[in-house]
Amino acid sequence: MPKLTYLSHSSFLIDDGVHQVIIDPFLSCNENAPLKPSDIKAKFIVLTHGHGDHLGDAFEIAKQNDALIIAVNELANYAASQGLNAHNMHIGGGWNFPFGRLKFTIAHHGSANAEGQYMGEPAGVVFSIGGKKIYHCGDTGLFLDMKLIGELNKIDVMLVPIGDNFTMGVDDAVKAVEFVNPGLAIPMHYNTFPVIQADPDEFKSKVEAIGKKAMVMDYGQTLDI
Ligand code: NI
Ligand code: MN
């Protein structure tokens, strides 16, 4: 049974008992983060896009752990140019890693690094790990193709941005949950900055009102999925 730990913002750690995979590790410049980059022992780092609140401490964690960075081609090439191990992928493509299968999906957003260099298309990610499917939406607005993601994958856990301004707000996020039809929806990408203040309990109650399950994870909380 995989374990999912919320590291605040859009960062999660997935542990299948053998492998640890960290997603969008934004820890050191994030006062909500329950762990420091030096606490992370993951061998796999998955990045949805190149913005600072997602790329975060990825390169430091990769160096510390001799970890593999998994990202779309342009962002993976940037990681490789910094001397890191990277696996280049792109949207619509999947690959079988030691922890399971990972497939990149579309996300409607931007992606450049802090210097303004283009980092490829932003993405969402569908993980198949320990017999479960987790869909991390990345940073995105609502899009109708989420229906297709839900139709092609029986999603157990959906990680949904709700903070508005840069991504979906609460009401669009609830619609996204309706489209994907996951077993459980967990909000992310809220309350880190003043412009993304949102009420996760409002999201939870609106998801429950459409007959779906939602859970608000605390920073550092671990869930068996
Ligand atoms: Ni972003
Ligand atoms: Mn973001």
Shape: globular
The CATH architecture name reads 4-Layer Sandwich
Question: What is the CA-based Rg, rounded?
Answer: 16 Å
Number of strands: 13
Mean pLDDT level: 98
How many helix segments?
Answer: 6
Strand content: 25-35%
What structural category arises from helix and sheet content? alpha/beta
- Determine and state the CATH class: Alpha Beta
CATH topology: Metallo-beta-lactamase, Chain A
Work out the helicity level. 10-25%
Low-confidence stretches: none
Give your account of this protein's structure.
By secondary structure, the protein is of the alpha/beta class. It has a single domain, classed as 4-Layer Sandwich (Metallo-beta-lactamase, Chain A), CATH 3.60.15.10. It is 22% helix and 27% strand. The chain has helices at residues 52-55, 58-65, 73-81, 146-152, 170-180, 200-209, and strands at residues 3-6, 12-15, 20-23, 44-46, 68-72, 85-89, 94-97, 100-106, 123-129, 132-136, 157-161, 184-188, 222-224. The strands form two sheets. Strands 6-5-4-3-2-1-13 form a seven-stranded mixed beta sheet, covered by helices on one side. Strands 7-8-9-10-11-12 form a six-stranded mixed beta sheet, covered by helices on one side. A hairpin with a 5-residue loop joins strand 1 (3-6) and strand 2. The longest helix is centred in the C-terminal third of the chain and has 11 residues, at 170-180. It is globular. It starts with a strand and ends with a strand. 47% of the residues are buried. The structure holds nickel (II) ion and manganese (II) ion.
